[in-house]
């Protein structure tokens, strides 16, 4: 069993309009945009990062807004719900706020004794706010939402799969322990890591396969402290039979990727070097930052990207 994985690092989704995306995460949810850069494989597409004040691992939602990309359809073989943690007693505030801003899919639910508010993102993405203890985290209040209501970061995420046995085995190997099961959902948690420590697996035996598009989670990333820990995880996964990419420099973390038995793309990302490597904390997410290889083409890239409001 691995001991290097410390919970979630980030979740990355595909999206439609860049300004709608930015407005939703910074305006509606009150997160901070901590980085404005581009997709490494498609530099005419933004890669936007939203999180707490400094983009702490376990707080960061990232998106690829492709513009007029068709929406995906929800189903099995994907991360179907991304969950944010909010202060206890804050869900009435959020229900009123989201309803007033026209957010769809609002529904109050409980799972594993937790009070939750489920809702749709701007591209039909599946989200939930879960009342939880802060666990040492603070909220970003720069988005105009008070400390009593603001988002701490991730609570966890839920994968929907037809068959779960192989994924259960993988999560156990990654250091996750089974906590509970209810209503076809099994909860896993990891000890000794960050506060984004839960992962739910929902079995939907007869579910239709998800189709990828705007609103689909592209991958879910798990945190390790540094590159040495990442290399240990990579070697162990490969020894177990997984096909794992080489280490890729993503400027703000190093990443490796592999496809899980249920079809979900997993990433293992380092906590280093962080989002302040090329911007000071006071100005995170303001300027367009480009990977080094694209810097000579800045003028062309900027001409292709839509303007995004601050």
Which secondary structure elements does this structure contain, and how are they paired or packed?
Layout: E1 8-15, H1 18-28, E2 32-39, E3 42-51, E4 60-65, E5 78-86, H2 91-100, E6 107-111, E7 114-120, E8 126-131, E9 153-161, H3 165-173, E10 177-182, E11 185-189, E12 198-203, E13 217-224, H4 227-239, E14 248-249, E15 253-259, E16 265-273, H5 298-304
Parallel strand pairs: 1-4, 5-8, 9-12, 13-16
Antiparallel strand pairs: 1-13, 2-3, 3-4, 5-9, 6-7, 7-8, 10-11, 11-12, 14-15, 15-16
Organism: Roseobacter sinensis
Domain VOC: 7-132, 153-271
Protein name: VOC family protein
Notes on the protein architecture:
It comes from Roseobacter sinensis. Residues 7-132, 153-271 form the VOC domain. This is VOC family protein. Strands 2-3-4-1-13-16-15-14 form an 8-stranded mixed beta sheet. Strands 6-7-8-5-9-12-11-10 form an 8-stranded mixed beta sheet, with helices on one face. The protein contains 5 helices and 16 strands. With 310 residues, the protein is of the alpha+beta class. The mean pLDDT is 97. 16% of the residues lie in helices and 36% in strands. Strand 15 and strand 16 form a beta hairpin. The chain has one domain (8-304): 2,3-Dihydroxybiphenyl 1,2-Dioxygenase, domain 1 (Roll), CATH 3.10.180.10.
List the defining traits of the structure above:
single chain; 310 residues; alpha+beta; 2,3-Dihydroxybiphenyl 1,2-Dioxygenase, domain 1; 8-stranded mixed β-sheet; 5 helices; globular; Extradiol_RC_dioxygenase; VOC family protein; Glyas_Fos-R_dOase_dom
């Amino acid at each position: 069993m691995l001991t290097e994985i410390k919970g979630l690092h980030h979740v990355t989704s595909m999206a439609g309009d860049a300004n709608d995306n930015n407005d939703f995460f910074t305006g509606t949810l009150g997160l901070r945009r901590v980085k404005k850069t581009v997709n490494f494989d498609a530099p005419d597409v933004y890669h936007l990062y939203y999180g707490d004040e400094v983009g702490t691992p376990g707080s960061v939602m990232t998106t690829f807004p492709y513009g007029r990309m068709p929406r995906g359809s929800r189903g099995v073989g994907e991360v179907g719900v991304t969950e944010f943690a909010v202060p206890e007693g804050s869900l009435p505030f959020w229900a009123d706020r989201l309803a007033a801003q026209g957010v769809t899919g609002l529904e109050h639910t409980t799972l594993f004794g937790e009070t939750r508010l489920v809702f749709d993102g701007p591209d039909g993405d599946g989200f939930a706010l879960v009342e939880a203890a802060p666990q040492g985290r603070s909220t970003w209040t720069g988005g105009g939402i008070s400390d009593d209501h603001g988002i701490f970061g991730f609570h966890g995420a839920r994968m929907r799969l037809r068959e779960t046995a192989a994924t259960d085995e993988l999560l156990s190997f990654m250091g996750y322990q089974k906590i509970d099961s209810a209503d076809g959902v099994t909860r896993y948690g990891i000890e000794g890591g960050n506060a984004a420590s839960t992962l739910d697996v929902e079995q939907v035996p007869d579910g239709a396969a998800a189709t990828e598009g705007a609103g689909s989670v592209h991958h879910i990333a798990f945190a390790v402290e540094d590159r040495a820990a990442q290399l240990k995880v990579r070697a162990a996964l490969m020894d177990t039979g997984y096909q794992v990419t080489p280490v890729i420099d993503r400027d703000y973390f190093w990443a490796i990727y592999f496809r899980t038995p249920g079809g979900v793309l997993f990433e293992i990302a380092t906590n280093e070097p962080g989002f302040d490597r090329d911007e000071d904390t006071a100005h995170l997410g303001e300027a367009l930052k480009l990977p080094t290889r694209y810097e000579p083409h800045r003028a062309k890239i900027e001409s292709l990207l839509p303007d995004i409001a601050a």
